[in-house]
Amino acid sequence: MSSKPQALTSIGPMRAFAANSKKIAVELIEINENLLGFNQYITEYYKQLSETWGVAQKKVNQKAPKIPQDVEQIEATKRIWIDIFDNDFTELFDSKKFGENYGNLVSKELELTKHWNNITNVILQSVNLPSKEEVDEVYKEIHSLKKRVSKLELELKKEKRKNAK
Amino acid sequence: MQNESTIDPKIIEEVLKFSRNVIEAPKFVSAPDEINLEVTPHKVVQQIDKTRLLHYKPISGTKHKTPLLISYALINRYHILDIHPEKSWVRNLLEQGFEVYMLDWGTPTSMDKYLDFDDYVNGYLESSVEYIKNQSSTEQISLQGYCTGATIATAYTALYPENVKNYIATAPVIDGWKDTTVISNLAKHMDADKMVETIGNMPPEFMYYCFSVLKPFEQGIEKYVKFFKNIDDKKYVDNFLRVEKWLGDTPPIPGELFKQWIKDIYQENLLIQNKMYVGDELIDLKKIDMPMFTQVAVGDHLVSPECSMPLHYAVGSKDKTLKIYPTGHVGMIASSLSQNSLSQKKVLPEMGAWLAERS
Predict the structure, then answer these.
(1) Quick one: which of B14, B112, B170, B339 has the most CB atoms within 10 Å?
(2) Spatial contact of B98 and B64, defined as CB atoms under 8 Å apart
(3) Nearest-CA distance B149 → chain A (Å)
(4) Which fold has domain B9-358?
(5) How large is the ipTM?
(6) pTM of the complete model
């Protein structure tokens, strides 16, 4: 028998605890790796927004260079500001570079959520509760049963209607 | 003095008035719970899972034999079609003598994440049609679909042409590759599989993000500036709050339905190519051979006309009409007074006249 203290984790109630701790540690390491990618895309996201803001503001300055002197001029300047900003930002949101970066950003966020889900699953199972996957299986089964029952009910109604004629 | 700057006293007056309006706004504004969005009296005649089939009480007597079922969109709730007595789509149709039913898709929960196109088309919509046929002793109904509800209605009409006497597609989402909106750009770059696998249903927060990138400055700033400027106008405030309440009430979209939606419509564009499956059945748009009426809006920034119009050319119908209106996605169904009540004065009368001839 080994005298090393870490061998304690391989037997008895500590075994599950050690295995769960390892799973959680792996998830946390992967979360850190994902955060790097997430930060890269979120930086690009705000860079695109701030660049578009800068360009739009320059356009507004060129079109409405004077400080408005009366209510009508304020209204006109506001209209120019809104139109230019809406146009420039719509152009950005409609562009491939925004779509791709936003898609990647959401994807990284989902990966982070997935790791969080995995950690939660480890904890749920350690206290003898069903994991998300197990609950999903039940949902899937219920959905399939409900679908079959609904189809049968509908068929029955149609049949009754046909016979009643 | 020469250096003294002159400020138009009207500017100060405007600023003071605006500040006063902001401070006094709570006195004029109802809490969201105090606003009832269900304007026209109706009965819930059938309930399956979370969906409800509503039957509206006739106003001026039913003049037309064929009942009309409205399949509303999956985003936000059906209330926009009955948001205010003066701009109610439903009320207008009742006044024209139609018998109107509405399918409320309800609010799906985590348990509903496996609901897909098959459930919506062959389940909920088909059950509603069967119910109406049974109740009104007719073999066919008229069907209207709005936005994403029109995509579901289109699939249904192609699968069950024998049940649909007339089909009205209002701003339908059909040709995803031709859609020029920001929504389609986001959808094209989305990993729908990962999204649904990780979070299940599509959460409302994600939808709110998508809406926030549509005309962000007009909708995010100017709209509220106008609201505070008009805070004394009871009618304006009431209308504004109703629409705001409606905008803030978006149910989640069932995961499987959302996934098929994004992939089949926006990414692979299968519907318009007659390659999309609902359950085990292929959707062939040529099978839509009944009279069809398509309504699109030039200024639609949610579903561009280029995305909707291909339906008009793809169906097998000989009797078909395409109407293009100078308004936006919501303006087409619930125009405000500032939009000259286009929906009440033009869109609905034209649709009603077309439908009356064929009902």
Answers:
(1) B170
(2) yes
(3) 21
(4) Rossmann fold (3.40.50)
(5) 0.83
(6) 0.90
